[in-house]
Specification:
Order of helices and strands: HHHHHH
Strand content: under 5%
Low-confidence stretches: none
Main location: membrane
Pfam families: Mntp
Family: Belongs to the MntP (TC 9.B.29) family.
Function: Probably functions as a manganese efflux pump.
Mean pLDDT: 78
Structural class: mainly alpha
Organism: Paenibacillus sediminis
Helix content: over 70%
Distance between the termini: 25 Å
Number of domains: 1
Largest sheet: none
Length: 186
């Protein structure tokens, strides 16, 4: 019974982290969507974001497994520290107020640059998760699903709402990751 509860808790944690990472794609998607976007471009960008949200945490998890073998018993502190830094960085960026300028999001380089910029955080989270035994298949699928879903929602919502909401989405994701970092440490 205790093992089922622990496994369920781990799955809930992964889903919450996936949503938190997806909030970055959501918030930046609003900004791109505000400039006007075709539905085909929404699908194209969201697919590439979902793909990057699968590949980058996967690479991060492999790096995390390697680091875990080196660091031994201090891995939870290192993983928590990474999440604290990542969450703090997301919070800082949301209040900084600078607008990120992208290439033409319809071009292949623009789609890749945009997707990489909203997915790079998932590499760091993958490193943290790689230091623990987590369900690899479920983790990368959850990250990809929520990254893609949140980008679709952000891009579509950006067509109709004000730009200020985007900063709050990134801040919320940062607070969630920062909180998990504290939980890993304490």
């Amino acid at each position: 019974m205790m093992e089922v509860s622990a496994h369920l808790g781990q799955l809930v944690t992964i889903v919450i982290m996936a949503i938190a990472l997806g909030l970055d794609a959501f918030s930046l998607g609003i900004g791109v969507g505000l400039k006007g976007i075709r539905l085909w471009d929404v699908l194209k960008i969201s697919f590439v974001i979902a793909l990057f949200h699968v590949l980058l945490p996967l690479l991060g998890m492999f790096a995390g497994h390697y680091m875990s073998s080196i660091l031994g018993h201090v891995t939870s502190y290192v993983a928590g520290g990474l999440l604290l830094l990542l969450g703090g960085h997301m919070i800082y960026n949301s209040f900084k107020g600078d607008q990120v300028q992208f290439m033409n999001y319809r071009s292949l380089p623009g789609v890749i640059l945009f997707s990489l910029s909203v997915s790079i955080d998932s590499f760091s989270v993958g490193i943290s998760l790689g230091m623990f035994r987590s369900d690899l298949f479920f983790t990368v699928l959850a990250f990809g699903f929520f990254g893609g879903l949140m980008s679709v929602l952000g891009l579509l919502l950006g067509r109709t709402v004000s730009q200020g909401l985007g900063d709050y989405g990134e801040a919320a994701g940062g607070v969630i990751l920062f909180t998990f970092g504290l939980l890993f440490i304490f």
